[in-house]
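G.,

No rush on this.
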Amino acid sequence: MTHRPRPWARPLLALTVLGPLSLAGLLVSGCEAPDPGPALSPDDTVKAATQLLTDRCLAARGLTPPRPGRRPGTKAQEEHLADALFGAGRTELSLRLPTGYSVRAHTDGCLASAQRALYGDQRRWFRVSTVVNNLKPEAAYRKTGLASVRAGHRTEIADWQRLRARALTRATHLLTDQPRTP
């Protein structure tokens, strides 16, 4: 005589065998890190970290970071916020481009502080990023091809790439270590 399980025993058998597996699956999935969502591009990663650092700096100074839709303060409040964000007084960094234009920046604002934290050397970053960001205007000014201008600035482009890679690494770590808000 063959033994047939009783109909009421089938669910019990399923629970007995699958129960521990299901429970283990729930425990494992419950311990996983939350889904971080879509990955940011390298540019967006550095921008997000820069914003996080500038927001922290402004908050430490008792200021509310600027956001679209925010009610503007008085003219004096907005100037104070701009000075805290971008720096004030005499510009410490300056670079004259081959096109004749000069680009200037401060070293004392929250943005400068964020750049130092991400790139390590704000002065070097200012110089190489200004050169690299103005290659097309330089090519137009010199009436030559962009490839020719790039070849003449190989050193600056290589420095830009190294500093940018460093900033991306630091930005990724900074953003990964942030508590997530639901």
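When you get to it, here's the other one too:
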Amino acid sequence: MHPLRTPVTISSLRLPATAAAVVLALSACAPTVDVSPAKDAANPACAPMMVALPDTMGDAGLRKTNSQATAAWGDPSKVILRCGVNVPGPTTDRCVSVNGIDWVIKEGDPVWTLTTFGREPATEILMDPDQISSATVLAELSAAARKIKANRNCVGQEELQNLPTGQ
């Protein structure tokens, strides 16, 4: 391998444990992105979303990956998607709704993990907010993520204020 084309893996970027399973080969000599599939990647519910993914994400084009239910945009990759990750349970992590899709956001340094909330199977996005806006990513993926039916939503502070107190 040419010394200037040494592969860089996402694990060398000091990702949180939930994202450490994803390995990217960001080599200029490799047209296919190496992404580890999620545990439930073979779930048939991922298929409608995968065929509805956008061809571009901001200025980054969709690239070929080597695993089922995965996608990558940009060269080097700016956004990685995996369908079939563990469904998030109740959480105090920030949850936002973009175009009717709820996402749990975990801000890492440098990579953020965005996971659909209330949809089974869940979809995980890995992205660096210094490379692409999270608002762009979530807006661009809304139509595809909607292909997996929601069965619950994030609960905001306003909903919590209306819960019975038990007194």
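The beta strands are 56-57, 60-63, 70-73, 79-85, 94-98, 101-106, 112-116, 122-127. Residues 134-145 form the longest helix (12 residues).

Enjoy the weekend,
O.
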